[in-house]
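Thread: "does anyone have the structure for this chain?"

Original post by V.I.:
We have the sequence but no experimental structure in hand. Need at least a predicted one for the grant figures.
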Amino acid sequence: MVILPTRRQVLGGLGATTLSVGGGYAFVVEPRFRLALTRYALTPPGWTPGLRLRVAVIADIHVGEPYMPLDRVAEIVAAANALAPDLILLLGDYPAGRKVTWRPVPLPDFARLAAELRAPLGTYAVLGNHDWWDDHAAMRAGRGPVEVRRLLEARGIPVLENDAVRLVHGGRPFWLAGLADQEPFLPIGSRRSLADIPATLAQVSDDAPVLLMAHEPDIFVEVPRRVSLTLSGHTHGGQIRLLGYSPVLHSRYGQRFAYGHIIEEGRHLIVSGGLGVSRVGVRLGVPPEIVLIELGEGAPSA
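Reply from O.Q.:
Generated one for you, tokens below.
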């Protein structure tokens, strides 16, 4: 006698299979093997007419096995170079946290690969919270410079901490500014920020447009209109993002600065979903991404 499964058993089996497959995808495929390219084209307020700039943005690499081994970093570097950007920006959080690291990757090896990034205007970096938290000497001393800053700068990649540099492209100048980290010290939530917007912008000595790098996007509420575009990472888009909603976000502002291109009162922010993972090794609906921003290519934005 053949015993047929009931409708409830069939549906239950399909549900379990879906969860199993979906879970495998979220824990294995999307965080480790997908690499997306997200493009933005805009002319932000205060942008110089005729200044066209291709900017590749790499955020939240979180190097460490199994999710971000050195061969994955090499893949990201090659993909960024293939975009032929004018400028490459690294938005912080280079080491992975211990919760998602089965085997650490030495930061000198990461810096060696980062030095292979190629752009005519160079590669510039800022620091993120994990760059501080994972440097135990800096945590004990309560000050930097942190290890990854020393390593990147030894490889020719300037790290901006409340600094601004004037760059020229096609005969037209612009400023690149970078803030120090806003959450450098443990315990989490201590709110001892090192970011200083007034001191950073005080170095801007003419009316050329300003690009601002800030690892955590929460500081956007303080960014003045003088800045044409702010670039951030940190949120990972929540690592799980469905129908434009991220259930878990480490931000005081909830969904407000979760991911993507945000415009508030004429001020522009782009938040990258980043590349690595932290706290838990999962990504679903927000695959690891390199961001390519084409400035001066899109219609003027309000």
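V.I.: this helps a lot. Helices lie at 7-33, 70-82, 107-114, 129-133, 136-141, 147-154, 197-201.
O.Q.: and Residues 1-22 have pLDDT under 50 and may be disordered.
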